[in-house]
Design goal:
This is EvpB/family type VI secretion protein. The chain is built from three helices and no strands. The chain is an all-alpha fold.
Length: about 30
């Protein structure tokens, strides 16, 4: 699994960040 190659916390953080930005675009502004 290539996903396992990268730090799990990093992948999860990125996913959460993208989800937050997607759900709350104002938070990014």
């Amino acid at each position: 699994m290539k996903l396992y190659a990268v730090p799990h916390f990093q992948v999860e953080g990125m996913d959460v960040n993208l989800s937050l930005v997607s759900q709350m675009p104002k938070a990014k502004a």
